[in-house]
Amino acid sequence: MISSVRGLVLSALGSTVVVEVGGVGLAINVTPATALSARIGQELRLHTTLVVREDALTLYGFDSADELAVFELLTGVTGVGPKSGLGVLAVLSPDQVARAVADDDDAAFRKVSGIGPKTAKLIVLSLTGKLAVTAASAPNVARVAPSAVGESVLAALVGLGWSEKIAVQAVDETLAEAGDADKASVAVLLRLALGRLGPAQHTIGGRS
C-alpha cells in the first residue's frame, strides 16, 4: 500500500497531478482544489491510497489525513466508487461531510455529480456513528472516530444492554468530548460512556 507520496510536481491539470518520486512520475487523482494549489517544480506531499482494479492501479491523493479517512469511508458505501468519493470531497470538506451525516442531511450529497437520492441516503445511513463532530478546536470541526476503539466501546455498550441507537449516540458524544480520543484506551472511553449514560439506564443482568 502506498500511504503517502512526496516529490516535485511535474504537472497539474484538472483533477490529476504528476509527482516525481525517485525518478518516477506518479499520476495521482486529486480534488480540483488540490490540483490548483500544486505548483510545477515545487514539492508536494499527499496522503494516498492505492485502489486496485482488474484493469488498473490508481492512486488517489489528499492534502490531509482526514480527507483520506473520509474518502475510505465513502468508498466503503455500496454504490460509491473512488470517482464519486473524490467528487464528494471536491464539494464538501471532511467537516461538512460529518455535519451532513450528523444532521441527516442527504441533500448535501446530492449536490455531487453522479450521486442520486438513494445513494445519498445510503451514505448518511452508512456513515452514521463513524464520523464525529467536535467543538474541541472550533465549531463544526469534524474528525473520524477511531474505528477500532469506537467500535469496541459500541459493542461493549450493546452487550451491556443498551440499544444500538443509544449506544452510538453515547460513543459519538464521548469521542467528541475526549481531548485525545485516538490515544485513549477502550476501558477509559467505556468508563466515560457509562458515566454519560448513567446507572439508571444500566441493564446488566437483563433487558427491560
Would you mind describing this structure in some detail?
The protein folds into three domains: 4-63, OB fold (Dihydrolipoamide Acetyltransferase, E2P) (Beta Barrel); 65-144, 5' to 3' exonuclease, C-terminal subdomain (DNA polymerase, domain 1, Orthogonal Bundle); 145-208. The longest helix has 14 residues, at 164-177. The chain is α+β, with helices and mostly antiparallel strands. It has a five-stranded mixed barrel. It has nine helices and seven strands, in the order E-E-E-H-E-E-H-H-H-H-H-E-E-H-H-H. It has helices at 32-37, 65-74, 82-91, 94-102, 107-110, 117-127, 147-159, 164-177, 186-197, and strands at 4-13, 16-21, 24-29, 43-53, 56-62, 131-134, 141-144.
Task: Present the secondary structure layout.
Layout lengths: L3 E10 L2 E6 L2 E6 L2 H6 L5 E11 L2 E7 L2 H10 L7 H10 L2 H9 L4 H4 L6 H11 L3 E4 L6 E4 L2 H13 L4 H14 L8 H12 L11
Parallel strand pairs: 3-5
Antiparallel strand pairs: 1-2, 1-4, 2-3, 4-5, 6-7
Helix pairs in contact: 2-3, 4-6, 7-8, 7-9, 8-9
